[in-house]
Predict the structure.
Amino acid sequence: MKPSSYIARSDSWFYHRPNLTTQISNMCKDTLFSRMVYCGERQIGKSCFFLDDLCPILIQEGMIPIYVNMRGSSPHTQFAIQLNSALDGVEFDKGVLNSFASRYIKKLTIENLFANEDVKCQPNAATNMDLSIIKLLLKLVVKSAGNSKIVFILDEFQNLSVSTVFDNFLYALRTHFDTYGSRITVIFVGSNSIGMKSLFQEEKAAFYHSAQMNQFPVIDDGFIDYCVNRLKDIYNININKIELLDFWIEVSHSPYWVVRLMLEMVEHENTLTHAIANIRVDICEEKR
C-alpha cells in the first residue's frame, strides 16, 4: 500500500520535537501501545506535531499514518473520506468496491466540500449505509497495508462526546478497532479533557477503559531560545528573553500565540512590550 504523502514541514519557524517523535513512533510499533490518548489545551501544537513531526517519521519506519480531524457535524464522513484517500493508487479487486459504493463515496466527498463543519451545527448520525461503507473501506485499507502497521491519528476526538447522535459511529469504531487488534494503532487526540474523559472513563461509553489518558507534553522552553535567535539572525531584532518567557507562561506554552507575537513585532515593527499588549487583545477577542 502506498503511504500517504505526509512531508516534514520546511517552515523555518516550526519547532521540531525529535525526542517526543521518537518516543511515540516507537510506541506505535509496540502492541503494548495499540491505543493511546493524548489531551491538551488548544493551540499548544498538538495537530502540528502529529502531522508535521510524527507522520513523516512513521512513514520512514514503514508504517501507514491516516490522520482524521473529527471536528464538525459529520465526523463519520471525514473518516470515510480519509479511508478512501488512503486507497488512492492502491491495486485491489475493484469488484469489491462496487459501483454503488464508489458513487456513494463520491457523493460523501462532494457533500463534504460544501458542508459547514462548525462544531455548533446540528450533529448528523451515521446511517447504516455510512457504517457499511466505512467497514468495507477499512477492510480494504487493512488488506492493502499488508504487513505494515496502520496508525490512525484521530484529532479533536472530544467532538464525538457532544451528542449521543454520534454513539452508533463510536460503537462501530470500537468494534472495528478491536477486531483488527494490533494491526492498527490508534492515537486519540483531544483539546477538551472533560469531553475526552467522558469517552474513555464513563462506564457506558463505547471506548470505556480502552486506553489510558495522557497529558500531551507542552513544548519546552527551548522554543523561546529558538524564536529569540531567529529574530536576531533574520531581522536583527533583539528582545528581552525573560519578558518573552513570562508571556510564554501566560499563554500556557502556546506556540501559536508566540508565533503570532513574532509576526506582530516584525510586520508592524512593534516593541516586544507593545506587541504583547496587542496579542493580549486578540486573545481576549478569541475567547468571546
Remarks:
- The CA atoms of residues 279 and 285 lie 10 Å apart.
- The longest strand covers residues 184-190.
- The longest helix spans residues 128-145.
